Every structure is written in C-alpha cells, then in structure tokens.
C-alpha cells in the first residue's frame, strides 16, 4: 500500500496481478496520482487514509470480487467514482453488477490504453462537476453574486488552460492553420470531424474547440467508440432505463444526457458498426436520445466532435461507413498532421514534455544536449506525441546528470535517426519549406535554412563537420544559423 502526496487527482487501481497494476499505472500516471492495491483488504486500508477520486477495480480477484467490493465502496465512500474492469463478454451479467454497485463505467478486457485514460478523465470530470453543482447550489441559496463570481472564475481558468495557444508548436508550424480554422468554427454550432494518426493530438484540439465555444460552461465528455461492442456503447452513450434488461435496477443516463448543453467527443468513430451508425444518425438528426428500454425520447442539446485515424471517405466508398452520417458529422473537417510532417514542432514539444516529466519525477532542471535535439528531430515518430513522451520519460529515468544525451533514448530512436534523416517534404512540414510568396531574398533565405537544417540533422548537429561539408568556417556557420533563426 502507498499513499499519494500530490495535487493531481488520485486513482486507486485494485488488481491482484502486478503486471496489470503496472500497465494501468503507465497509462495513467501522466495525468493522475496512481495508487495500487492487490485486493479488497489492501484497498480498504488506502481508502481509510487517502482521498481517492476514482477506483479502477478488476472483477476477478481472490476473495471478494470487484463488484462485491465496489458495493461496499458505494456505501462507505459514495463520492468515489467506481469503474469495473472485466473479461466477461455477457453484457447482461456485466450490467447487473454495475447497477448493484452503482458503477460509473465498465471496461472490457483487453482494455485499450486510450480508452482507459479517457474513461478515467471523464470520471474525474464527472466527479468535479457533481461537487461543483453541490457547492454552487449552496452558494445560490445564500449569495447569487458569489455564485456568479465563482462560475466566471472557473470558466476563465478552463479557457486559459485549454486555449489554442497552449497547443505546443513552433512559429510557422502547419498546426497554425489547423488551430486558426478550429478557432474560427469553434464559436459556431457546427459539428466537426478531426482526422489524424493516433497520438497526434486530436483530443487536445477538440477540448480547445469546446472551451473556445459558447458551450464552454458545460461539460466536455468523450468516448472511444472502438473500445466496446454496440450494446455496451449504446448504453454508455444513450443510457438505459430501469428494467430494460436483467440487472438494470436503476436508470442510467448516457454521456449525451450528461453533456447536455456541452460537447461530446466521439473518438475513433470510424470503427463503429453500420447498425450503431444508424442509431447515432437518428440522435444527431432529431437531437434526442432514446435510452435502451425507454419509451420516451429525451431531448439533448450537444455539439458533436468526432475523430478517427481512418480515411472515412474511402470507408464510405467501401460501404463501411454511412454516407449520410459522414456528412452529418463532417460540418467542418480538421486534419492534425503527424509529428513527422511538422519537424519544427518536435523541439518545443520535447522541451515542454521534458519539463512535465521532470516535475513528475522530482528532477530539477534537466535539459537536452544539442545532439539529443538533433536525434529527436531526425526520428519519424510513428507514435507521434505519445511516443515522444514515453521516450522522454525513459530518458529522464535513465539519465543521472542535468544534460540528457542521445544515448538515453531507445535503440529504435537512434537507429531511426541514423537510417535516413529527412526529405524535403518533411522539412517543409517543419515550417521551414520554400514559401509560395515573398521577395526573392526571403525565398532564398528559406532555401538556405532548409539546406542548413538538413545537413545539421544528418550530421547530428556537429558544426565542424557541417561547416566543412558546406564550405564554411565555424564562425560563418554560426552567423548564418543566427541570421536564419536556427537553434544550436
């Protein structure tokens, strides 16, 4: 048993398998303080000493089952949000336990890291909203000015935290145009489709749109549509009524109802089945949900932002995605470029992540060497920002001194860097390609910057070798680098 001492929301993982505990800790520890327990007895001891926001509990454990333990938690620690993880595939059995224990959400094994992280984020946000609602109701009874001031302050903080300017990028990044378009459409009630590879930052863009919109004062909720079968996804999004199936002992409002007035972010919508697409299309067209087992439809007012790594237009042509639903969700389409197509963003993102990781690990002031930044900028990052963060966390853990050298990164990164460097298209994606307008001098400077950066990256920022290859002195190379705004 361990006790958290942090300002981050605390998540308690209850699982008798150490490997499962470690996997969930790695998935969650960027955003949460993660505690672990091997069973019900150990978890009770944690709860008696530590305030916990969310419990992630495995269903099958020696002694007390997950559902049985969470029934006890519901009685003794009702404010804690309860999530069950199970390998069962029988939806009715799962939902029976969920209703008995008042479980917020269930996650089927094998769980997907993105879905697990999204579920916990939603749970923490739901808990915070409930606490805020209770507090504001008390304030409303006593002092309306206090209520207004508190609500305005909370909204201002959220807008600042998720502002488009907080999406880390370099000057001239391809993300500038994406963020500019997203900011323009955010204030209008258009549906949006965000395209991009896994880990490229689609959720961050969706949150920024929510907090830049008139809906910012309401909830932002998200669901990974690829993570569960249709029956569970419908119950999670649209809710179900008491008695709808065996074990449905109470009404369960879906995410659309919880987000009423706000934004629903549907990640990986391209993975949904045609049958579910029909149900979702009806909800979007009629602006109402019919909970499973319900007779009456419930009006909902939400903005939907959907995301996928798939080519939805191709899936429409292949008959795998409904054309009418595609046009319904694609009021505006935003494409987040992968990290390899915006090389100039790698350095500022890496430095931001380094600060975050160092703070989490209790390290003071680590920095990257010039060689390290060159290696990071030369690797294609197929896992995008998520992979970059994992590599930086590894490097911080393996480095003792203040300077983090390239040798602290995995062989995959070092070999990928050495294998090929960058082509012209990738360099253009980094914000330093040839501009399509401007004076001759400006365009020649852009070409010179591209050649200099390509050579520096290929030679791992060795200035002596770079100067020799380009026929320059070291002083001349440094002068050009300073004039063209190249770091190092």
UniProtKB/TrEMBL annotation:
Q: Which residues form the Sigma-54 factor interaction domain?
A: 175-397
Answer yes or no on keyword Oxidoreductase. Answer: no
Give a yes or no for keyword Aminoacyl-tRNA synthetase in this entry: no
Q: Which UniProt keywords apply?
A: ATP-binding, DNA-binding, Nucleotide-binding, Phosphoprotein, Transcription, Transcription regulation
In this chain the Response regulatory domain maps to 10-124
Matches recorded under Pfam families? AAA_lid_14 (PF25601), HTH_8 (PF02954), Response_reg (PF00072), Sigma54_activat (PF00158)
Q: Which residues carry this modification: 4-aspartylphosphate?
A: 58
- Taxonomically, the superkingdom here is Bacteria
Gene3D superfamilies, per database record: 1.10.8.60, 3.40.50.2300, Homeodomain-like, P-loop containing nucleotide triphosphate hydrolases
Q: What CDD domains does this protein's entry cite?
A: AAA, REC_HupR
Q: What is this protein called?
A: Sigma-54 dependent transcriptional regulator
């Amino acid at each position: 048993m361990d006790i958290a001492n942090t300002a981050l929301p605390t998540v308690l993982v209850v699982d008798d398998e150490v490997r499962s505990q470690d996997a969930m800790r790695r998935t969650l520890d960027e955003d949460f303080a993660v505690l672990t327990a091997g069973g019900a007895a150990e978890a009770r001891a944690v709860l008696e000493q530590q305030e916990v926001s969310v419990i992630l509990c495995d269903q099958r454990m020696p002694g007390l089952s997950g559902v049985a333990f969470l029934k006890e938690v519901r009685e003794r620690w009702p404010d804690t949000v309860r999530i069950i993880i199970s390998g069962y595939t029988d939806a009715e059995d799962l939902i029976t336990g969920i209703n008995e224990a008042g479980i917020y959400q269930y996650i089927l094994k094998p769980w997907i890291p993105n879905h697990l992280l999204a579920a916990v984020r939603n749970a923490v946000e739901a808990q915070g909203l409930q606490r805020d609602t209770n507090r504001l109701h008390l304030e409303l009874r006593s002092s309306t000015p206090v209520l207004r001031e508190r609500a305005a302050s909370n909204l201002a903080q959220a807008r600042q935290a998720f502002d488009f300017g907080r999406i880390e990028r370099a000057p001239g990044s391809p993300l500038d145009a994406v963020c500019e378009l997203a900011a323009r459409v955010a204030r209008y009630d258009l549906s949006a489709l965000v395209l991009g590879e896994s880990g490229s930052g689609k959720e961050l863009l969706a949150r920024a749109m929510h907090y830049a919109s008139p809906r910012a004062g309401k909830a932002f909720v998200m669901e990974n549509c690829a993570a569960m079968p249709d029956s569970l996804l419908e119950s999670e999004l649209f809710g179900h009524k008491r008695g709808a199936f065996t074990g449905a002992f109470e009404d369960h409002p879906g995410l659309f109802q919880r987000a009423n007035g706000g934004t629903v972010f549907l990640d990986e919508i391209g993975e949904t089945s045609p049958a579910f697409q029909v149900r979702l299309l009806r909800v979007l067209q009629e602006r109402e949900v019919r909970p499973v087992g319900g007779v009456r439809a419930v009006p909902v007012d939400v903005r939907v932002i959907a995301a996928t790594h798939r080519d939805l237009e191709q899936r429409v042509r292949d008959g795998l995605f409904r054309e009418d639903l595609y046009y319904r969700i694609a009021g505006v389409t935003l494409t987040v470029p992968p990290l390899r197509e915006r090389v100039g963003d790698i350095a500022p993102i890496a430095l931001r992540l380094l600060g975050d990781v160092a703070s989490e690990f209790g390290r003071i002031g680590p920095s990257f060497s010039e060689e390290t930044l060159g290696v990071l900028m030369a690797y294609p990052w197929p896992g995008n920002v998520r992979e970059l963060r994992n590599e930086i966390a590894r490097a911080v853990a393996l480095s003792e001194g203040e300077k983090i050298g390239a040798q602290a990164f995995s062989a995959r990164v070092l070999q990928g860097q050495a294998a090929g460097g960058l082509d012209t298209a990738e360099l253009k994606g980094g914000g330093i390609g040839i501009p399509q307008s401007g004076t001759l001098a400006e365009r020649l400077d852009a070409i010179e910057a591209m050649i200099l950066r390509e050579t520096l990256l290929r030679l791992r920022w060795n200035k002596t070798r770079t100067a020799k290859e380009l026929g320059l002195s070291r002083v001349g190379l440094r002068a050009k680098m300073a004039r063209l705004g190249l770091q190092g």
